[in-house]
Structures are given as C-alpha cells and as structure tokens.
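User: Could you walk me through two proteins back to back? I'd like the raw sequence and the structure tokens for each, with a short line separating them so I can tell where one ends and the next begins.

Assistant: Of course. Protein one, sequence then structure:
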Amino acid sequence: MTIEVRVPQLPESVADATLVSWHKKPGDSVVRDENLVDLETDKVVLEVPAPVAGVLKEIRLSDGTTVTSGQILAIIEEGAAAVPGASAPAILAASSGATAAAKDTVAKGAVAKDSAAKDTVTDGAKPDTAGGKLSPAAKRVAEENRVDPKTVSGSGRDGRVSKSDVVNYLTTKDAASPGSAPAAAAGPAAKAPAQFVPPSSARTARAEQRVPMTRLRARIAERMVQAQATQALLTSFNEVDLKSVNELRARYKDPFEKQHGVKLGFMSFFVKACVEALKKFPAVNASVDGNDIVYHEYFDVGVAVSTDRGLIVPVLRDADLLSYADIEKSIANFASRARAGSITIEELTGGTFTITNGGVFGSLMSTPIVNSPQSAILGMHKIQDRAMVIDGQVVVRPMMYVALTYDHRIIDGREAVQFLVTVKQCLEDPARMVLHV
C-alpha cells in the first residue's frame, strides 16, 4: 500500500516553506516517525517524519523547492523491504548530472584560463625581432607615439627595451622641447621614475561562490531594513559596574546549581533589571500600531540567540513572574533547541522588548537594531576590567557598556536615559530588584 508524505499544516502566519534537504533517497528503508526531510520557514526548520514504516518509493520534489501546506513530497511503500542498489529517480539523477556538468565546465574554464595566462606570459617574454630587442608593450607604445626604437636606450638584460624605457624617453623628449615650461628649460630634464609593475599573482583563478539566502536570513534582512526604514531609531549608552553581581554569583553559584540544576548566569540579572525599568517607563515596553500607541501591561522579553542559520529571538513570557532559576532554565533550553532547529514558531512570536548580548563574541560597544514591531532593544557587551574613580580612589572594576536603541517616535530621550540609569542601578545594587525600589 502506498502512502503519501505531505507538507504539514503550516502556521497561519507562514505562507510557504523551502525544502532544504532530504535525509533519505528512493529505495531506502524508513521507520515510522523518522525524519525524512527538512523544511525551512521564515523562522524555524520543520522536520517531516515518516507516517509509516516501509520503503521510500518516490521523491516528488527536489531540494530548494518552495512548498505549501498539503503538497505531496514523496511516496512510501508501506511494509516493503529495501531493494539493494535501488537507484534515485530521474529528477535527482538529472540534478546530480547537472551538478557534475557544472563542475566539469568550471574545471575546464579554469584550465583554459590558466593556459591562456601561460600563453600571455610566454608571448610577453619573446624578443621582438622586427624592431630590435623590444617587449611587445614597448613596441606598441613606440608605434603609437612614432618613436624610432633605435633612439631608445634599453635598461633590461642585454639592452632590452621595456615599456618604461619608451615612456621615460617620451617624458625626457617632451621636457626638452621648445614648448616646455621655463623651469624645464633651465637645466637638463630629470629622468622620470620607472613605472611600478606589481608582481604577477601566483593564483591562476580567483573563485567566487554565489548561494541564495536561506529563508531565515532573508527574513532577518527584511525585518532589519524595515525597522530602519519605518522607525526613528536612536541609541543611548551607559556603563555598569558588575562587581556586586559577580560577588553574588560567586557566593551562590554552587548552591544555586545544586538546587536548580542550572548555572546562575548574567542574563537572569539583566532580564530582572530590564523588567524593573520597563515598569517605570511603560513607553519602552510599548509599540506603534498605525496612529496608536499600544501599551503592553505584560512583560514578554525576547532573548536573542545566535545559531548557524542566523539570529533568532525566543520569548520569555511574563518575565516579571519568573524566578532567576526559571529564566536561566528557559534560556538554556531555548539555546540548545534553537541550535538543533527544534524551536517552535510560537516561541519566537510576539515579545514586547528584546535583550541581545554581543559580549559573548567580544563586542565592546554596538548599536543594536530594534526587533520590529517592538520599540526598544537593550544591547549587552563584553565585561572588561577598567580603572574607575570611586570615592576619590582609583580602583579596578568589571565594567560593561550597555546600549538602548529605541524608537524616538514614542520614546523620548529622557525616558531612554532614565531607563538605562534604572538598569544600571538595579545591577549595581541587586537588592533593588528584590525590594522593587
């Protein structure tokens, strides 16, 4: 009995997907729920499992095809056994043949180009018997300027005349002519410097590779450009002394990990600090909808996670109600699942504010771009020991620059600066986050 493998029902906000890669080929045995193919949407990669056990009889669509909900991807022969040496269908064979042909064409082109380059070098090295010991380039310049080759002194080996020798001859001749400037007539003309000829590259071919953007990368690009084009973005900066946070983490890291099964990181402190600041300055937690400002009375904080496919932003729902352990566990779970491609679209949807940490890559300062339709984003950066003056004394403290990029249409500079000051105060005196002051 043959069973059709179809594109699963895509979320309402996703119109189509791209077939990324097949994990099986026709003739292979498959087991129920085994992943057959990956489909990439604007936000996540979806796996299409085998509905039954059997043999993959036919693949209907090849890699790179755009697909929609319900479209047939493949046919499985339920309960059948794999046939050794079964060949792939014509569509895949043709694709492989095309790829091989393309590689062959490129290889032949490279060989031809290399051969042509060698011929050029060889030709350029041949002596010009018709006009004396002139290089081809020197002969061409001499003919264009009607110069008798016999009147040009060669600086090359065995008196060979180069292009620069002809150019120098012309320069000297022009300087000594009656129409030259008075300064030139005052004395013998100086010999012009020889033309610099860079050494030839040892590389025979300068390769380039053109690949289409993934759907996620294209979506990221679209959203970034949209944010820049539709919002009045401005960035304010401040710096935070993380000595108190470091001391807390050092003091409680072992009992915290033992009790909760997760490490106590920096992100939970920053999430809590931002929530306190968002409560005081609701415009930073708001968004623009047409001519209206929507004030969100909840705090869904997105935390940017870097993956091989690009940056995604899973959301901590009701972050104000989460404990430090809840936040750390959620972030660790998001990160591992995001890199494995198993995070859901629902977990990436929404969010009222975003935090991104460029410090893990060594960034000392940056201006992050708002995750539209949100109105603000906080950028964390590298922690660096710096000399600070505190109470008249120079001391070394672990400092971090923080940046708030915000939509100036609804957030005033005063609010942005005071938001950052509140974040700074909460992190430099973490008791404020417990007492909510």
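----
Protein two, same layout:
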Amino acid sequence: MEHVVYIALGSNLGDRLGYLRKAYQFLKKITESSIAASPIYESEPVGPSDNDYLNAVVRISTSLTPRDLLLKCKSFELDVGRNQSAPRWSNRVIDLDIIFYDDLHLDEEKLKIPHPSYQDRLFVLLPLLNLNPEGRDPVSGKFIEEMITCAPKIRITETNLSWDADA
C-alpha cells in the first residue's frame, strides 16, 4: 500500500542548493509512483544558527512504514555529512523531517507525526501550502493557510532556484 508523505528539507551549510538537490534525488529513489516539490525558499534561521536556510517540502508516495522511512532519511543525512551529535537548532548540511504521513497521528519517543511544532514554522508551512493548498492538520483539523496566519513571523522569501542542476 502506498502512503502520501510530506517531508520538509532544509540546509544552511556549504552548497545548500546542492544538498537540497541530493535530498530530492534520494527521495525520488524511494518513491514508488509520484514525487512533487515545492518552490525553494530562503529563510532566516530559528535558534542560534549562523546562516540563512534554503527550505522546501517534497511530497512522495511510498510503501515504507513511518519508522523505515525515518531510518532511511537519517541514514541519508549521515551519508551527506550531517553531524547527528550537533546541538539542536545548530547549522546543518541537510535536515529531512517527516511532516505528514497520510493522516497518521503518531507520538513515539523517536518519531512524532505530524512533526512537532511544524505549525509554528513558516519555512515548512509556506512550501507545504504550495503542494497542498487545501491541506489540513490531521490532529487539529486546521487548514495550512490558517496556521500560516498564526505562525511566528520570520524573514522568508520564495527563490527562483531550480531543482534541476542543469537549469
């Protein structure tokens, strides 16, 4: 059975666009039937990070379980050089977060779906709205558009950056 999953991507170290493109290619490989990507946004960091982030959301279809998907995402992060022992909110080459997995509500120690506090992050909500304009939070039932109006304001802009390395 295929599941529709939304994954947030972020990078603020090194070749930020290159890391997002690598993450997109990785997700494309684990997708059974369809993949879609939001525009790429640039946003100020939340927390003590030094550099602006590039952010996006990708929608995939997968038969992987939530736990298997999480393990694959964390393995990919390590493969491209993410320091898993770095403090929370620190700079990172890549970050992949499962935002939605169908309408699943999961609250385990190592995996929470929907992702905790995504509703307060414009760098997730704005790209998510691009891919899912009628989307709702599976727990609260709030529309994504409604969550955007309530989220803390940060500096964020949609870029003209392309997912295609040849563009």
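The mean pLDDT is 92.

Let me know if you want the two compared in more detail.
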